Structure formats: structure tokens, C-alpha cells
Amino acid sequence: WPLAEGEQVEISEGWRADTWGEELVLDGAEPLATFASGPLAGGAAVTRNHHGSGVATYVATRPDREAMAAIVRVAAEAAGVRRVLDGLPAGVEATHRGNHLVLLNHNDTAVRIPVPDGAHDLLGGQPGELAPLGVAVLRLQRED
């Protein structure tokens, strides 16, 4: 169901979407959000399906940024995904490699970051601060 350019539909949860919507037949999936307006009103807009030991989330439209962030957060939780480091500001990416933590600031402004106890910045940056578009590599204390 293509939508006209600039046309939006409402989704339960107070979300909005544009571009298209799909009419879904739920065969074992559960709806997480439904279309609240438009030609598919009442139909599933976001679904979850448990299969084997996994879980899949399907999005049948193009949700706005706020909605997509919420959908990804819920899908990650359902899949057992955990944050690498709690308390990171928006736009900061964290990757854990062995006993190292790599932080990338995708923002064009400096940000405050949480530093795990005993971590040592291998690049000599300012503790607790990440420069605009900056990177930090933290060596974490080994837990013996």
C-alpha cells in the first residue's frame, strides 16, 4: 500500500509512518503495534514471532525516527541483546573487543561519557570526555 509523497499514517503507541504500509496475515506472530489510520487501520504494523530459540520482529511500514528507535530497543531486548556500556549519550557507539572498549563519537560536539572503574585510555584522551568526532580506546581491568 504505497502512500502519496508527504502522506503519513498513525500507528498505535503515538507513532507515525510514511512511504508504504503492508497488509499482513499473522500466522503465529503477535502484533506489537497497529495502524491507527489510513487504508490499513486496525492491521498489524509491527509484529514479533518466536521461532525455535530465536525471535523476529517485522516492521510493515517506514516508521519515523522515534518509532524506529523504540522498535529496535524492544526487538533488542526481546532478543537478549545488552548494551556494551550503559549511560552513553546519543550518537556514541561502543564496541567491546577482549579487554578493550572502543568508543566512537559520531557527534560534532564533545560529549561526557561514563568510564568504567579502573579503565585506562590508551589514546591519552581526557577521562570522561570524548572529543567531537573523536575516538577512545579504553583498556579495562582484568577480572581475575
What does this structure look like?
A hairpin with a 2-residue loop joins strand 7 and strand 8. Strands 7-8-12-10 form a 4-stranded antiparallel beta sheet, with no helix packed on it. The protein is elongated. Helix content is 10%, strand content 39%. The chain is mostly beta strands and 144 residues long. It is built from 1 helix and 12 strands, in the order E-E-E-E-E-E-H-E-E-E-E-E-E.
Topology of helices and strands:
Blueprint: E1 8-11, E2 15-21, E3 30-34, E4 44-51, E5 54-59, E6 61-63, H1 65-78, E7 92-97, E8 100-105, E9 111-112, E10 120-121, E11 129-130, E12 135-139
Order of helices and strands: EEEEEEHEEEEEE
Which percent range fits the helix content?
under 10%
Sum up the overall morphology in one term: elongated
Main β-sheet, in a few words?
4 strands, antiparallel
Ends distance: 57 Å
Q: What structural class results from the helix and strand content? A: mainly beta
Oligomerization category of the chains in this entry: single chain
Descriptive labels:
mainly beta; 10% helix; four-stranded antiparallel β-sheet; single chain; 144 residues; three-stranded antiparallel β-sheet; 1 helix
